[in-house]
Structures are given as C-alpha cells and as structure tokens.
Amino acid sequence: MTDVPYEEWRRRAARLSPHTGHHIGGAFVPSRDGATFPAVSPRDGRTVADVAAAGAADVDRAVAAARRAFDEGPWPRLAPADRKAALLRLAGLVERDRETLALLVSLEMGKPVAEADGIELRALIGCLRWYAEAADKLIDESPRTDAASLALVTREPVGVVGAVVPWNFPLTMAAWKVAPALAAGCTVVLKPAEESPLSALHLAALAAEAGLPDGAFNVVNGHGETAGRALGEHPGVDVVAFTGSTEVGRHFLRYAAGSNLKRVWLELGGKSPNIILPDAPDLDAAADTAAWGIFFNAGEMCTAPSRLLVHRSVAGRVLDRIVDRARTLAIGDPLDPATEMGPLVSARQRDRVLSYLEAGEAEGARLRAGGPPPGGDVGYYVRPTVFDQVKPGMRIAREEIFGPVLAVLEFDGVDEAVRLANDTDYGLAAALWTSDLSTAHRVSRALRAGTVWVNCYEEGDMSVPFGGVKRSGNGRDKSLHALDKYLDLKTTWIAL
C-alpha cells in the first residue's frame, strides 16, 4: 500500500460509497424515524456520509433479530467446525477488501492509511482467524465422581452479546469482542462509536457475504446516550462487552443494575507508566520506543505510555532524543503515505487535548515540544507534545488525555519509580527498561497493571490476554480467556 501515491488515495476516497444504514437481520435498513448523523472526517472536517442514527426502537429491532437468531436460528446449533469455516470465510473477505476497509478507517478517524492497513486490518484478520481456529477446540469436562453417577460440565454460549467499541481502533476492538463471541456460538449486536461507523458497516456486509445467518451479527449506529444506553438497558441482551472511557463504563454498570443484571465486561482508560532505569540495555531504543508509543495513533490509545518515569541520571539524554523526534514527526493528511501522525478524531477531542496543554503550563510543567496545531482550521491536528518538570499531582500526570501528550517525571531509585507508577487510579499497562533480571521480575510483580512489558512496548499476540485492573476495568480480551466471557458452564449430574 505504500506504493499507492497520495493522489490515488484521494481519488479512491472520492469514489467511495459506504454503507450508511443499520445492519439488522442480514439487511441494511434506515432508522425507524429516519434520523441520521454526519460521519465527519477529521482530516478536513468534511462529511463523508450521513449515517442512520439509532433510537431505542432500532436497538430493539436489532436485539430482537439477534435473539431470534440465538433462540431459533442455526448459529449456536452449528457444529463448531462449521462456525470455524464461516469465520475463516469472513477473514478471507476482509483480506480481499482490506484496502477499502483501511481507507474507511483512515477517513473516519484519521489513522494514516498505511497504518490502517498494516496494523488495524492485520489485527482484524488475525483475530478472526485465531478465534475461528479456536471454535472447534473447546473441551467440555467430565469430573470423576462416585461409581453410581456421571457428572458433565459443558460450555454453552451465553446468548445475545451487546458489543460497544471505541473509535481509536474501530476494527481491532470490534474483532476482540465479536470474534470470540461468534466463535462461542453467541449472536451479536455491535454498536460502533459514532465517530467510526463506516468500517463496522462494511464488516457487517462481509459477514453476510461469508454466510453468517441473518441476525447472527448486527450493527446499529448512533450516539452513546441513545443507542448505547438502549443496548445497555435492553433485557434481551445477556452480556455487554465495552471498551471506552471509565466514565462511560460506569454507565453500563448502572444500565445492567437497572435492567436484567446482565454481565458487563469493561476495558477502560489508562495512564500507563513507562519506567526507564539507567541500566536499560539500549537507552536510545528506550527513548525511541517511548516516543513511538505516545505519538502512535496520535496518542489515542488506552495503553499509550503517557507517563514517562525516567531515572534522573539519564533523563537529559532520553528526553532530548524524544523531543527531537516530536519536532521532526511528519504530521499531515492520513491519506498521504508520507504522514506519520494524522489528526485527532474530532474537533471536540482536539479541543480537549489542547486544554491539557494549557493546564500543564498553568500548573508549572515545562513545554519542551508541541504548541499550536498545524494547518489552521483545516482538520483536527495537534502537534506531538512533551512536558518535563512534571509533578505527580498535576492533571497531565493523573488524567487520561488520549492525545499525543507525554508527561515526564524523574526519579532517583527503583522503589520511588514503582511508587510513582502505581500512584494512579488506572491499571491497564506498564513498562520497564532494565538489564537486571532480578529487577525485571521484582518490579513487574510490584506494578499494578494488566500487562507489563520489559524492554519493549505494545508487544504481544493473540495468545496472551489483554485487560486491566483498578479503574481500567475487568475481564480479558484476546487469548482463550476471552471466550470465558461468552460461555456459561452448565453442570449435568446423572444418576446411573
């Protein structure tokens, strides 16, 4: 895809005719009341398409379709090998349409198109194939009992899953919910973020083409306070799987408590610490990775290493290298192959991030890189930003900014670094750079986070679980453990 010139991407974008209706019961349909909302591209603020906006009636229609598909349809009753085959067909169709999907992601949320293809689409395809292969490898149990009895423990799909996903990785996050739920035999109603509905709707079209039964996979578009709430409160939904902010996660817990006590699995915010010790095996690599981690995807990443904790003895060297990278990063149109960092997803998000730049300086942090966004009023851009002289109590050190803003704190000893790292309401991820094996083990155990990387960042594959502790949520995506969210254990005791 890097060989495709900028002008060709612009031409392809102009020719796009994306799906805009809800995908319910195997077909695209408008909202019952005809309501729509604009899908606005952050690259230039223009409307890509007007998309159907779901109200409670539309969510009810989607849940009813999923309910029929689960209670009466073939999907949960298929042999696991047949569900596997269907998911593999879907993965193949995604591979066929990966350029279209990458272009939709780039247009709707601002990810550089090369990253949309090389990272987002690779993750979607890999996730679909991984859970397809897992579908026919789940094992039931038969515990040993007395000679007059037979005990069976079977894993059965929980029912209808409501999946609510964010805009920063719209297809990756959807795949982490949808793929294991479908592999388990559940049916799904997916609500993408209102900023990124177009790629999810194309995925729904491919699911129908792959032969998933009508109602097995539905997509409703709309705003969180209407469509999201209706899904969270719906008595026909058995499980909600949500990725997003901690604030909205609290709402879903309330929705469940006020309705049918559905299970709610939450992957929420983060303020991840990245600890660099003076014995890091390669300080330049540690600095480069720290810069990549906070500026990748314009910092719109729940695991972004937004707090850099660096030993005072090496802070100058590390910080100078990160600042140089911040000042030279190519910011621009996500359709331009030369772009390294695109815009933030919306004007609202841009303004929110800029408010943190003002807060950082007002509270006494020093701005080393960043400042007014390039491009004037065209697009929702923010320059890569680095603050040093940050104190633990500052807002930029405590609150999730969800933008390309790095807060640098210095420390003198390992115990102080651990204390600073754990001094947060969040617990999604953390990292440590050291050459000492004992330190690596000791600090990794001491860090309160769902994932700890040592001498790397954002590494892993589908075989390992992902999720947080504290206010970063509960449950796990990825790996075989994710299937547990969508399966019930049933005990059958037979007197012989």
List the helices and strands and how they pair.
Elements: H1 6-15, E1 22-24, E2 27-29, E3 36-40, E4 47-52, H2 56-71, H3 80-96, H4 98-109, H5 113-135, E5 149-157, E6 160-164, H6 170-184, E7 187-191, H7 198-209, E8 217-219, H8 224-233, E9 239-243, H9 246-258, E10 263-267, E11 273-276, H10 283-295, E12 307-311, H11 315-328, H12 347-362, E13 366-369, E14 385-388, H13 395-398, E15 405-411, H14 414-422, E16 429-433, H15 437-446, E17 451-454, E18 487-495
Parallel strand pairs: 6-7, 6-9, 7-8, 9-10, 11-12, 11-16, 12-15, 14-15, 16-17
Antiparallel strand pairs: 1-2, 3-4, 5-18, 13-14
What does this entry look like structurally?
By secondary structure, the protein is α/β, with parallel strands linked by helices. The protein is 39% helix and 18% strand. The protein contains 15 helices and 18 strands. The protein has helices at 6-15, 56-71, 80-96, 98-109, 113-135, 170-184, 198-209, 224-233, 246-258, 283-295, 315-328, 347-362, 395-398, 414-422, 437-446; strands spanning 22-24, 27-29, 36-40, 47-52, 149-157, 160-164, 187-191, 217-219, 239-243, 263-267, 273-276, 307-311, 366-369, 385-388, 405-411, 429-433, 451-454, 487-495. It is globular and about 70 Å long. The model has no long low-confidence stretch (mean pLDDT 97).
